[in-house]
Design a protein that fits this description.
Elements lengths: L7 H4 L7 H7 L15 E6 L3 H14 L2 E4 L12 E5 L1 H14 L2 E6 L2 H7 L4 H9 L10 H14 L4 E8 L5 E7 L8 E7 L7 H16 L4 H9 E6 L4 H9 L52 H13 L3 E9 L3 E4 L11 H19 L4 E4 H4 L7 H7 L4 E7 L14 H20 L4
Parallel strand pairs: 7-8, 7-9, 9-12, 10-11
Antiparallel strand pairs: 1-3, 1-4, 2-3, 5-6, 6-8, 10-12
The chain binds 2-acetamido-2-deoxy-beta-D-glucopyranose (4 copies) and zinc ion.
Zinc ion (ZN) binds next to loops.
Protein backbone atom coordinates (compact mmCIF):
# COMPACT_ATOMS: atom_id res chain seq x y z
CA UNK A 1 0.00 0.00 0.00
CA UNK A 2 1.15 3.44 -0.84
CA UNK A 3 0.28 6.70 0.83
CA UNK A 4 0.20 8.55 -2.47
CA UNK A 5 -3.17 8.99 -4.07
CA UNK A 6 -5.09 7.32 -1.30
CA UNK A 7 -8.03 9.21 0.04
CA UNK A 8 -7.45 10.77 3.37
CA UNK A 9 -9.63 8.31 5.20
CA UNK A 10 -7.49 5.37 4.16
CA UNK A 11 -4.30 7.13 4.93
CA UNK A 12 -5.58 7.56 8.44
CA UNK A 13 -5.19 3.84 8.92
CA UNK A 14 -1.45 4.30 8.74
CA UNK A 15 -1.47 7.11 11.22
CA UNK A 16 1.75 7.99 12.83
CA UNK A 17 4.36 5.46 11.91
CA UNK A 18 7.02 7.67 13.32
CA UNK A 19 5.33 7.74 16.71
CA UNK A 20 6.07 4.09 16.97
CA UNK A 21 9.68 4.75 17.72
CA UNK A 22 8.74 7.08 20.50
CA UNK A 23 6.63 4.28 21.93
CA UNK A 24 9.45 1.79 21.99
CA UNK A 25 11.75 4.23 23.69
CA UNK A 26 9.09 5.07 26.20
CA UNK A 27 8.26 2.12 28.43
CA UNK A 28 5.69 4.16 30.35
CA UNK A 29 3.92 3.39 33.59
CA UNK A 30 7.04 4.48 35.41
CA UNK A 31 8.29 1.10 36.67
CA UNK A 32 4.75 0.58 37.96
CA UNK A 33 5.26 2.96 40.85
CA UNK A 34 7.92 0.81 42.54
CA UNK A 35 5.31 -1.63 43.82
CA UNK A 36 3.88 0.97 46.17
CA UNK A 37 0.42 -0.62 46.01
CA UNK A 38 1.51 -4.13 46.97
CA UNK A 39 -0.94 -5.52 49.50
CA UNK A 40 -3.36 -2.59 49.19
CA UNK A 41 -7.00 -3.59 48.94
CA UNK A 42 -10.15 -2.23 47.38
CA UNK A 43 -13.22 -2.97 49.45
CA UNK A 44 -16.88 -2.39 48.71
CA UNK A 45 -18.96 -1.46 51.74
CA UNK A 46 -22.65 -0.99 52.13
CA UNK A 47 -23.87 0.76 55.27
CA UNK A 48 -27.40 -0.42 55.96
CA UNK A 49 -28.27 2.03 58.71
CA UNK A 50 -27.51 5.62 59.55
CA UNK A 51 -25.32 4.42 62.43
CA UNK A 52 -23.27 2.28 60.10
CA UNK A 53 -22.83 5.15 57.67
CA UNK A 54 -21.67 7.35 60.53
CA UNK A 55 -19.24 4.72 61.75
CA UNK A 56 -17.83 4.30 58.25
CA UNK A 57 -17.27 8.01 57.80
CA UNK A 58 -15.27 8.01 61.01
CA UNK A 59 -13.10 5.07 60.16
CA UNK A 60 -12.49 6.41 56.63
CA UNK A 61 -11.26 9.63 58.15
CA UNK A 62 -9.08 7.90 60.71
CA UNK A 63 -7.46 5.51 58.26
CA UNK A 64 -7.22 8.11 55.48
CA UNK A 65 -8.71 5.76 52.91
CA UNK A 66 -8.63 6.68 49.24
CA UNK A 67 -12.32 6.89 48.39
CA UNK A 68 -13.12 5.61 44.91
CA UNK A 69 -16.88 5.82 45.00
CA UNK A 70 -18.41 8.21 45.97
CA UNK A 71 -15.65 10.80 45.79
CA UNK A 72 -16.23 12.46 49.14
CA UNK A 73 -16.83 11.20 52.67
CA UNK A 74 -19.79 13.56 52.97
CA UNK A 75 -21.54 11.53 50.29
CA UNK A 76 -21.31 8.30 52.26
CA UNK A 77 -24.82 7.46 53.36
CA UNK A 78 -27.18 4.70 54.33
CA UNK A 79 -27.94 2.30 51.52
CA UNK A 80 -25.29 3.56 49.09
CA UNK A 81 -22.34 1.56 47.95
CA UNK A 82 -18.89 2.85 48.78
CA UNK A 83 -15.67 1.55 47.24
CA UNK A 84 -12.51 2.34 49.17
CA UNK A 85 -8.84 1.81 48.49
CA UNK A 86 -7.07 1.02 51.74
CA UNK A 87 -3.29 0.97 52.05
CA UNK A 88 -1.73 -2.35 53.05
CA UNK A 89 -0.82 -1.10 56.52
CA UNK A 90 -4.39 0.01 57.23
CA UNK A 91 -6.30 -2.92 55.80
CA UNK A 92 -5.99 -5.10 58.90
CA UNK A 93 -7.54 -2.35 61.05
CA UNK A 94 -10.35 -1.80 58.59
CA UNK A 95 -11.20 -5.48 58.26
CA UNK A 96 -11.17 -5.94 62.04
CA UNK A 97 -13.51 -3.00 62.38
CA UNK A 98 -15.88 -4.40 59.77
CA UNK A 99 -16.04 -7.77 61.44
CA UNK A 100 -16.68 -6.16 64.79
CA UNK A 101 -19.47 -3.92 63.53
CA UNK A 102 -20.96 -6.47 61.14
CA UNK A 103 -21.10 -3.97 58.30
CA UNK A 104 -21.68 -5.63 54.97
CA UNK A 105 -18.57 -5.68 52.77
CA UNK A 106 -16.91 -7.41 49.88
CA UNK A 107 -13.26 -7.37 48.90
CA UNK A 108 -13.09 -6.23 45.28
CA UNK A 109 -9.29 -6.42 44.98
CA UNK A 110 -7.03 -8.39 47.28
CA UNK A 111 -3.83 -6.88 45.97
CA UNK A 112 -4.04 -3.64 44.04
CA UNK A 113 -0.50 -3.89 42.69
CA UNK A 114 -1.32 -7.20 41.01
CA UNK A 115 -4.44 -5.76 39.37
CA UNK A 116 -2.41 -2.81 38.16
CA UNK A 117 0.18 -5.07 36.55
CA UNK A 118 -2.32 -7.48 35.05
CA UNK A 119 -4.34 -4.70 33.46
CA UNK A 120 -1.63 -3.89 30.96
CA UNK A 121 -1.53 -5.58 27.59
CA UNK A 122 1.29 -8.05 27.13
CA UNK A 123 4.49 -6.44 25.85
CA UNK A 124 4.08 -8.36 22.59
CA UNK A 125 0.61 -6.95 22.05
CA UNK A 126 1.77 -3.49 22.89
CA UNK A 127 4.50 -3.55 20.28
CA UNK A 128 2.94 -5.80 17.62
CA UNK A 129 -0.12 -3.66 17.29
CA UNK A 130 1.87 -0.52 17.02
CA UNK A 131 3.63 -1.82 13.90
CA UNK A 132 0.51 -1.19 11.82
CA UNK A 133 0.00 2.30 13.20
CA UNK A 134 -0.72 4.08 16.42
CA UNK A 135 -1.91 1.78 19.16
CA UNK A 136 -5.25 2.99 20.47
CA UNK A 137 -5.68 -0.02 22.72
CA UNK A 138 -3.17 0.96 25.36
CA UNK A 139 -3.14 3.92 27.71
CA UNK A 140 -0.84 6.72 26.66
CA UNK A 141 1.26 9.08 28.71
CA UNK A 142 0.72 12.83 28.40
CA UNK A 143 3.82 13.18 26.27
CA UNK A 144 2.61 10.48 23.88
CA UNK A 145 -0.81 12.07 23.61
CA UNK A 146 0.66 15.48 22.87
CA UNK A 147 3.01 14.03 20.26
CA UNK A 148 0.03 12.31 18.68
CA UNK A 149 -1.87 15.59 18.55
CA UNK A 150 1.06 17.41 16.93
CA UNK A 151 1.33 14.61 14.41
CA UNK A 152 -2.34 14.75 13.44
CA UNK A 153 -2.14 18.52 13.19
CA UNK A 154 0.55 18.05 10.54
CA UNK A 155 -0.87 15.08 8.65
CA UNK A 156 -4.60 15.86 8.71
CA UNK A 157 -4.69 19.60 8.36
CA UNK A 158 -7.89 19.36 6.29
CA UNK A 159 -9.93 18.15 9.22
CA UNK A 160 -7.84 18.97 12.28
CA UNK A 161 -6.46 22.11 13.78
CA UNK A 162 -4.58 22.00 17.05
CA UNK A 163 -4.25 25.01 19.31
CA UNK A 164 -3.57 25.89 22.92
CA UNK A 165 -6.06 27.66 25.20
CA UNK A 166 -3.57 28.44 27.95
CA UNK A 167 -1.14 26.93 30.41
CA UNK A 168 -1.60 24.62 33.35
CA UNK A 169 -0.43 25.38 36.88
CA UNK A 170 2.89 23.68 36.15
CA UNK A 171 3.22 25.45 32.81
CA UNK A 172 2.10 22.76 30.39
CA UNK A 173 0.15 23.78 27.30
CA UNK A 174 -3.58 23.08 27.33
CA UNK A 175 -4.11 21.69 23.86
CA UNK A 176 -7.41 21.36 22.04
CA UNK A 177 -8.14 19.80 18.66
CA UNK A 178 -10.69 21.48 16.43
CA UNK A 179 -12.10 18.70 14.30
CA UNK A 180 -14.42 19.13 11.33
CA UNK A 181 -14.51 20.06 7.69
CA UNK A 182 -13.55 23.67 7.25
CA UNK A 183 -16.49 24.60 5.07
CA UNK A 184 -17.69 27.68 6.89
CA UNK A 185 -15.95 29.80 9.46
CA UNK A 186 -18.87 29.50 11.82
CA UNK A 187 -20.55 26.20 12.36
CA UNK A 188 -22.31 24.92 15.39
CA UNK A 189 -19.95 23.07 17.67
CA UNK A 190 -19.63 20.35 20.28
CA UNK A 191 -17.13 20.58 23.12
CA UNK A 192 -15.66 17.33 24.43
CA UNK A 193 -13.22 17.07 27.31
CA UNK A 194 -11.58 14.05 28.88
CA UNK A 195 -9.42 13.65 31.94
CA UNK A 196 -10.71 16.34 34.29
CA UNK A 197 -9.89 13.76 36.95
CA UNK A 198 -6.39 12.43 36.54
CA UNK A 199 -6.85 8.79 37.52
CA UNK A 200 -9.77 8.16 35.14
CA UNK A 201 -7.51 7.01 32.31
CA UNK A 202 -10.25 5.60 30.11
CA UNK A 203 -11.35 9.21 29.48
CA UNK A 204 -8.30 10.37 27.50
CA UNK A 205 -8.26 6.97 25.75
CA UNK A 206 -11.80 7.64 24.58
CA UNK A 207 -10.97 11.14 23.33
CA UNK A 208 -8.19 9.65 21.23
CA UNK A 209 -10.50 6.93 19.99
CA UNK A 210 -13.10 9.49 18.96
CA UNK A 211 -10.60 11.39 16.85
CA UNK A 212 -9.28 8.18 15.27
CA UNK A 213 -12.79 7.01 14.35
CA UNK A 214 -13.65 10.40 12.91
CA UNK A 215 -10.60 10.34 10.63
CA UNK A 216 -11.00 6.71 9.64
CA UNK A 217 -14.72 6.76 8.86
CA UNK A 218 -15.25 10.29 7.57
CA UNK A 219 -15.42 9.02 3.98
CA UNK A 220 -17.21 5.74 4.50
CA UNK A 221 -19.76 6.48 7.22
CA UNK A 222 -22.59 8.88 6.28
CA UNK A 223 -23.31 9.70 9.93
CA UNK A 224 -19.72 10.68 10.64
CA UNK A 225 -19.56 12.66 7.41
CA UNK A 226 -22.67 14.56 8.41
CA UNK A 227 -21.24 15.24 11.85
CA UNK A 228 -17.96 16.61 10.55
CA UNK A 229 -19.60 18.56 7.75
CA UNK A 230 -22.17 20.27 9.92
CA UNK A 231 -20.28 20.70 13.15
CA UNK A 232 -16.94 21.48 14.67
CA UNK A 233 -15.79 19.33 17.55
CA UNK A 234 -13.50 20.92 20.09
CA UNK A 235 -11.72 18.03 21.74
CA UNK A 236 -9.52 18.36 24.78
CA UNK A 237 -8.02 14.89 25.32
CA UNK A 238 -6.41 15.73 28.65
CA UNK A 239 -7.97 18.55 30.65
CA UNK A 240 -5.99 18.10 33.86
CA UNK A 241 -2.55 17.73 32.29
CA UNK A 242 -0.52 18.14 35.48
CA UNK A 243 -2.63 15.64 37.38
CA UNK A 244 -2.59 13.15 34.53
CA UNK A 245 1.18 13.33 34.29
CA UNK A 246 1.44 12.87 38.05
CA UNK A 247 -0.82 9.80 37.87
CA UNK A 248 1.72 8.25 35.48
CA UNK A 249 4.84 9.14 37.38
CA UNK A 250 3.93 9.14 41.08
CA UNK A 251 0.45 8.24 42.19
CA UNK A 252 -1.84 6.17 39.98
CA UNK A 253 -4.85 7.29 42.04
CA UNK A 254 -4.30 11.03 41.94
CA UNK A 255 -7.52 12.89 41.09
CA UNK A 256 -7.00 16.64 41.49
CA UNK A 257 -4.90 19.32 39.83
CA UNK A 258 -1.41 19.93 41.21
CA UNK A 259 -1.63 23.51 42.47
CA UNK A 260 -0.04 24.39 45.80
CA UNK A 261 -1.95 25.68 48.77
CA UNK A 262 -0.72 28.64 50.78
CA UNK A 263 -1.57 27.13 54.16
CA UNK A 264 -1.51 23.36 53.75
CA UNK A 265 0.99 20.91 52.37
CA UNK A 266 -1.73 19.09 50.45
CA UNK A 267 -1.79 19.91 46.78
CA UNK A 268 -4.47 20.10 44.16
CA UNK A 269 -8.05 21.16 43.63
CA UNK A 270 -10.91 19.07 42.27
CA UNK A 271 -11.25 20.52 38.77
CA UNK A 272 -14.87 19.40 38.75
CA UNK A 273 -15.79 21.43 41.86
CA UNK A 274 -14.01 24.63 40.91
CA UNK A 275 -16.62 26.18 38.58
CA UNK A 276 -18.69 29.24 39.36
CA UNK A 277 -22.01 27.51 39.85
CA UNK A 278 -23.15 27.15 43.44
CA UNK A 279 -19.41 26.98 44.10
CA UNK A 280 -18.27 25.05 47.17
CA UNK A 281 -21.70 24.12 48.38
CA UNK A 282 -23.04 20.60 48.88
CA UNK A 283 -20.82 17.76 47.64
CA UNK A 284 -17.64 19.83 47.65
CA UNK A 285 -15.08 20.27 50.40
CA UNK A 286 -13.41 23.42 51.68
CA UNK A 287 -10.48 21.42 53.01
CA UNK A 288 -7.38 21.44 50.76
CA UNK A 289 -6.52 17.87 51.71
CA UNK A 290 -9.82 16.45 50.48
CA UNK A 291 -10.28 14.91 47.08
CA UNK A 292 -13.28 17.15 46.39
CA UNK A 293 -11.59 20.39 47.48
CA UNK A 294 -13.31 23.24 45.63
CA UNK A 295 -10.26 25.52 45.64
CA UNK A 296 -9.72 28.97 47.22
CA UNK A 297 -12.15 30.67 44.81
CA UNK A 298 -14.08 29.77 41.62
CA UNK A 299 -11.84 29.25 38.57
CA UNK A 300 -8.76 29.37 40.79
CA UNK A 301 -7.28 26.57 38.69
CA UNK A 302 -5.71 27.83 35.45
CA UNK A 303 -7.02 24.75 33.61
CA UNK A 304 -10.62 25.52 34.65
CA UNK A 305 -10.22 29.19 33.90
CA UNK A 306 -8.83 28.51 30.43
CA UNK A 307 -11.71 26.22 29.46
CA UNK A 308 -14.31 28.53 31.02
CA UNK A 309 -12.88 31.45 29.06
CA UNK A 310 -12.95 29.46 25.85
CA UNK A 311 -16.54 28.34 26.39
CA UNK A 312 -17.65 31.87 27.32
CA UNK A 313 -16.12 33.17 24.13
CA UNK A 314 -17.68 30.51 21.88
CA UNK A 315 -20.91 29.68 23.67
CA UNK A 316 -23.05 31.15 20.91
CA UNK A 317 -22.00 28.32 18.63
CA UNK A 318 -21.52 25.53 21.09
CA UNK A 319 -24.60 23.32 21.19
CA UNK A 320 -23.30 20.58 23.43
CA UNK A 321 -20.79 20.06 26.21
CA UNK A 322 -19.65 16.48 26.86
CA UNK A 323 -17.31 15.53 29.66
CA UNK A 324 -15.82 12.07 30.12
CA UNK A 325 -15.27 10.50 33.52
CA UNK A 326 -15.11 7.05 35.09
CA UNK A 327 -16.36 4.88 36.64
CA UNK A 328 -20.06 4.09 37.16
CA UNK A 329 -21.63 3.44 33.73
CA UNK A 330 -23.89 6.44 33.77
CA UNK A 331 -24.94 9.20 31.44
CA UNK A 332 -25.66 12.29 33.51
CA UNK A 333 -27.18 15.66 32.75
CA UNK A 334 -27.94 18.71 34.94
CA UNK A 335 -28.52 19.50 37.60
CA UNK A 336 -25.71 18.19 39.67
CA UNK A 337 -25.97 20.74 42.45
CA UNK A 338 -29.68 20.42 43.23
CA UNK A 339 -32.63 18.11 42.92
CA UNK A 340 -34.62 19.94 40.26
CA UNK A 341 -35.67 19.47 36.69
CA UNK A 342 -33.97 21.54 34.00
CA UNK A 343 -36.16 23.68 31.72
CA UNK A 344 -35.51 21.63 28.59
CA UNK A 345 -35.81 18.35 30.38
CA UNK A 346 -37.64 16.42 27.67
CA UNK A 347 -35.15 17.19 24.88
CA UNK A 348 -32.17 16.33 27.04
CA UNK A 349 -33.81 13.30 28.61
CA UNK A 350 -34.77 11.79 25.28
CA UNK A 351 -31.26 12.38 23.95
CA UNK A 352 -29.86 10.51 26.96
CA UNK A 353 -32.39 7.72 26.68
CA UNK A 354 -31.59 7.06 23.02
CA UNK A 355 -27.88 7.34 23.63
CA UNK A 356 -27.80 4.68 26.34
CA UNK A 357 -29.94 2.40 24.17
CA UNK A 358 -27.52 2.84 21.31
CA UNK A 359 -24.63 2.11 23.66
CA UNK A 360 -26.30 -1.01 25.01
CA UNK A 361 -27.01 -2.34 21.52
CA UNK A 362 -23.32 -3.19 21.01
CA UNK A 363 -22.41 -5.48 23.93
CA UNK A 364 -25.44 -5.24 26.18
CA UNK A 365 -23.67 -3.00 28.68
CA UNK A 366 -26.21 -1.10 30.73
CA UNK A 367 -25.94 2.53 31.66
CA UNK A 368 -28.15 4.40 34.07
CA UNK A 369 -29.08 7.90 33.02
CA UNK A 370 -30.71 10.93 34.58
CA UNK A 371 -29.96 14.15 36.45
CA UNK A 372 -26.56 13.84 38.14
CA UNK A 373 -27.95 14.83 41.55
CA UNK A 374 -30.43 11.98 41.80
CA UNK A 375 -28.55 9.42 39.67
CA UNK A 376 -25.06 9.77 41.14
CA UNK A 377 -24.91 12.28 43.98
CA UNK A 378 -25.23 15.99 44.60
CA UNK A 379 -22.11 17.97 43.77
CA UNK A 380 -21.72 21.69 43.32
CA UNK A 381 -19.31 23.62 41.11
CA UNK A 382 -19.23 21.06 38.30
CA UNK A 383 -18.30 21.83 34.71
CA UNK A 384 -21.52 20.31 33.38
CA UNK A 385 -23.78 22.53 35.48
CA UNK A 386 -21.67 25.54 34.66
CA UNK A 387 -21.82 24.86 30.92
CA UNK A 388 -25.57 24.42 31.13
CA UNK A 389 -26.03 27.60 33.15
CA UNK A 390 -23.98 29.57 30.68
CA UNK A 391 -26.41 28.69 27.91
CA UNK A 392 -25.20 25.48 26.28
CA UNK A 393 -28.45 23.52 25.84
CA UNK A 394 -27.09 19.97 25.86
CA UNK A 395 -24.61 19.19 28.58
CA UNK A 396 -23.69 15.67 29.64
CA UNK A 397 -21.17 13.87 31.78
CA UNK A 398 -20.35 10.27 30.95
CA UNK A 399 -19.19 7.93 33.67
CA UNK A 400 -17.62 5.20 31.57
CA UNK A 401 -16.99 1.53 32.46
CA UNK A 402 -17.03 -0.27 34.74
CA UNK A 403 -19.13 -0.54 37.91
CA UNK A 404 -16.27 -1.34 40.25
CA UNK A 405 -14.77 -4.68 39.28
CA UNK A 406 -11.66 -2.90 38.02
CA UNK A 407 -12.70 0.66 38.84
CA UNK A 408 -9.99 3.12 37.79
CA UNK A 409 -7.78 0.20 36.70
CA UNK A 410 -9.89 -0.73 33.70
CA UNK A 411 -7.59 -3.12 31.79
CA UNK A 412 -6.26 -2.08 28.41
CA UNK A 413 -8.08 -5.05 26.87
CA UNK A 414 -11.33 -3.25 27.62
CA UNK A 415 -10.39 0.03 25.92
CA UNK A 416 -11.69 -1.15 22.55
CA UNK A 417 -15.12 -2.42 23.63
CA UNK A 418 -15.62 0.54 25.96
CA UNK A 419 -14.77 3.08 23.28
CA UNK A 420 -16.70 1.25 20.57
CA UNK A 421 -19.98 1.35 22.49
CA UNK A 422 -19.37 4.90 23.75
CA UNK A 423 -18.83 6.08 20.16
CA UNK A 424 -22.40 5.05 19.33
CA UNK A 425 -23.76 7.03 22.25
CA UNK A 426 -21.81 10.14 21.27
CA UNK A 427 -22.84 9.87 17.64
CA UNK A 428 -26.44 9.42 18.70
CA UNK A 429 -26.38 12.52 20.89
CA UNK A 430 -24.72 14.49 18.13
CA UNK A 431 -27.32 13.48 15.56
CA UNK A 432 -30.03 14.31 18.05
CA UNK A 433 -28.85 17.85 18.47
CA UNK A 434 -28.60 18.42 14.74
CA UNK A 435 -32.38 17.98 14.68
CA UNK A 436 -34.74 20.53 16.06
CA UNK A 437 -36.07 19.52 19.43
CA UNK A 438 -39.62 20.65 20.17
C1 LIG B 1 0.90 3.50 56.35
O1 LIG B 1 2.13 3.82 55.73
C2 LIG B 1 2.23 5.17 55.26
C3 LIG B 1 3.57 5.32 54.60
O2 LIG B 1 3.82 4.29 53.72
C4 LIG B 1 2.11 6.13 56.44
O3 LIG B 1 2.15 7.45 55.98
C5 LIG B 1 0.81 5.88 57.16
O4 LIG B 1 0.74 6.68 58.32
C6 LIG B 1 0.68 4.40 57.56
N1 LIG B 1 -0.65 4.19 58.10
C7 LIG B 1 -0.85 3.45 59.19
C8 LIG B 1 -2.30 3.28 59.60
O5 LIG B 1 0.03 2.96 59.80
C1 LIG C 1 -1.10 23.25 13.79
O1 LIG C 1 -0.76 23.44 12.47
C2 LIG C 1 -0.86 24.79 12.01
C3 LIG C 1 -0.46 24.84 10.56
O2 LIG C 1 -1.15 23.91 9.82
C4 LIG C 1 0.05 25.68 12.80
O3 LIG C 1 -0.15 27.04 12.41
C5 LIG C 1 -0.27 25.53 14.27
O4 LIG C 1 0.67 26.28 15.02
C6 LIG C 1 -0.18 24.07 14.68
N1 LIG C 1 -0.58 23.94 16.07
C7 LIG C 1 0.27 23.67 17.05
C8 LIG C 1 -0.28 23.66 18.43
O5 LIG C 1 1.43 23.42 16.86
C1 LIG D 1 -30.04 6.59 18.20
O1 LIG D 1 -30.38 5.48 19.01
C2 LIG D 1 -31.69 5.00 18.79
C3 LIG D 1 -31.90 3.83 19.71
O2 LIG D 1 -31.77 4.23 21.02
C4 LIG D 1 -31.88 4.56 17.36
O3 LIG D 1 -33.22 4.19 17.14
C5 LIG D 1 -31.50 5.71 16.43
O4 LIG D 1 -31.55 5.25 15.10
C6 LIG D 1 -30.10 6.21 16.75
N1 LIG D 1 -29.80 7.33 15.88
C7 LIG D 1 -28.63 7.50 15.30
C8 LIG D 1 -28.51 8.67 14.39
O5 LIG D 1 -27.69 6.76 15.51
C1 LIG E 1 -34.58 25.04 25.27
O1 LIG E 1 -34.55 24.65 23.92
C2 LIG E 1 -34.92 25.68 22.99
C3 LIG E 1 -34.90 25.05 21.62
O2 LIG E 1 -33.78 24.25 21.39
C4 LIG E 1 -33.94 26.83 23.13
O3 LIG E 1 -34.31 27.88 22.26
C5 LIG E 1 -33.92 27.32 24.57
O4 LIG E 1 -32.94 28.30 24.72
C6 LIG E 1 -33.62 26.17 25.51
N1 LIG E 1 -33.69 26.62 26.87
C7 LIG E 1 -32.80 26.29 27.77
C8 LIG E 1 -33.02 26.84 29.12
O5 LIG E 1 -31.85 25.57 27.54
ZN1 LIG F 1 -14.37 12.09 37.25
Amino acid sequence: MKFLGKPRSQRAAFLPLCLLFLKILHPGHSHLYSSRYAGDKVIRLIPNTEEEAYALKNIYQQLKVDLWQPSSISQVSEGTVTDVHIAHNGSRALLAFLQETNIQYKILMEDLQKVLEKGRSLPTQRSRRSVSGYNYEVYHSLEEIQNWMHHLNKTHSGLIHMFSIGKSYEGRSLFVLKLGRRSRAYKRAVWIDCGIHAREWIGPAFCQWFVKEALLTYRSDPTMRKMLNHLYFYIMPVFNVDGYHFSWTNDRFWRKTRSRNSRFRCRGVDANRNWRVKWCDEGASMHPCDDTYCGPFPESEPEVKAVANFLRKHKKHIRAYLSFHAYAQMLLYPYSYKYATIPNFSCVESAAHKAVNALQSVYGVQYRYGPASSTLYVSSGSSMDWAYKSGIPYTFAFELRDTGHFGFLLPEMLIKPTCTETMLAVKNITMHLLKKCP
